Amino acid sequence: MQLEAAVAIGRDTRPSSESLSRAVIDGVTALDSKYHDYGLVTTPQLHYIICCCNSEGRYGKPTLEGYYNKLSKAFSDLTKQAECGNKCVNVDGANGIGALKLKEMEKFLHSAITVQIFNDGSQGKLNHLCGADYVKVQQNPPQGIEMKPEERCCSFDGDADRIVYYYNDSAGHFHLLDGDKIATLISTFLKEMLVKVNLSLTMAVVQTAYANGSSTHYLEEIMKVPVYCAKTGVKHLHHKAQEFDIGVYFEANGHGTVLFSKKAEEQIRHLANMEQSNEKRKAAHTLQNLVDLINQTVGDAISDMLVIEAILSLKGFTVQQWDEIYTDLPNRQLKVKVADRKVIDTTDDERRTIKPPGLQEKIDDLTKKYNMSRAFARPSGTEDIVRVYAEADTQENADALAHEVCLAVFHLAGGIGDEPKPL
Ligand SMILES: CC(=O)N[C@H]1[C@@H](OP(=O)(O)O)O[C@H](CO)[C@@H](O)[C@@H]1O
Ligand SMILES: [Mg+2]
Prior knowledge:
Blueprint: E1 6-11, H1 15-30, E2 34-40, H2 43-54, H3 64-79, E3 88-92, H4 97-109, E4 114-118, H5 132-138, E5 153-156, E6 163-168, E7 174-177, H6 179-197, E8 203-207, H7 213-222, E9 227-229, H8 234-241, E10 246-250, E11 256-260, H9 262-274, H10 278-293, H11 301-315, H12 319-323, E12 331-337, E13 345-347, E14 352-355, H13 359-368, E15 374-379, E16 385-391, H14 395-412
Parallel strand pairs: 1-2, 3-4, 3-5, 8-9, 8-10
Antiparallel strand pairs: 5-6, 6-7, 10-11, 12-16, 13-14, 15-16
Helix pairs in contact: 3-10, 3-11, 6-10, 6-11, 9-10, 13-14
This protein binds 2-acetamido-2-deoxy-1-O-phosphono-alpha-D-glucopyranose and magnesium ion.
2-acetamido-2-deoxy-1-O-phosphono-alpha-D-glucopyranose binds at residues 210, 232-234, 251, 253, 255, 380-383, 387.
């Protein structure tokens, strides 16, 4: 308690946030410490501010304006080289803080991008039938958004640290571009730029067990990018990604970012300023702007959206072309209520169970019945449930496998309530 502390405080739009934040201020004041109340901020904005404070401003100015200016400048600089691409996107703000802050940011972006914000919190309830998690798990568009065919749309989650993209094709079919597709787009682009600048920096993608098998296959076999699996929860992915010069990490649900080592940042900045060859210098400049646009402290829906928009525009890619990089295996995520989720224990980064006895053998047997299949069950770290994931060659098979694994969990791991029903 000898060192002087400075506490940065921020809150989101939930009614409970105000009294919680007041309680923290009272506690900090009682301890005679300094604090700065940043008021309403997204989770990643607060992370950005803390990083600025802890790096004596090297990461940026520790204010919301500093955040908006840093990202807007990098985005405008990046996209002014792009010849084509309509930078126009519909955003589902999940009725949370992200909508508010994106609106606030618009004037800093000086029309470098047009965003139309839906579910901005003025009417609907937070995350109700909208938001990134709803869209990812339901594999459906959120309510309250206008979706013309082929139009690029995205959903933030309630505190704006996750993002997923989607669109309806001209036949009216819904296409989801989740965290795996985002990681693929970003790592493909980074790899192209690294080839141009000819820097030998290590790069890897970190995923979790929930990553679609097609994404892992594409990254490893086609892109030749090393892929690592970490336990669910961004802290695990973040730590693994720190082992590389460029570590791209994303959970399938859209939570992720890119980390650059000090060495990578230095080499990129050096080339961007000193390199003689025009083409190399330009690529280094692009990389440098990406470093500035990416919020390296944590997954950030606003920053990730701008990174994606910039890459699509620089590559001249439509959302359909991005989607076609690889085709997701049909998949299903379900949950089972159990009396005590601790009866399940896992190994292999949560891809296999070691407890209760017999469960993994049962999952293995069920999985063998289907083509291109994979399934696992793990206890949630945030809710009192067991999550089940399955993928297979068809949606029917993925649904059937997920249901059968739910039944196995229900019977072998102490399920409560009604027996899981088929979809
Ligand atoms: C399958 C899934 O989406 N799991 C989520 C969820 O964790 P669980 O441990 O699965 O409840 O909440 C975490 C925190 O937001 C997030 O990091 C993670 O990805
Ligand atoms: Mg969140």
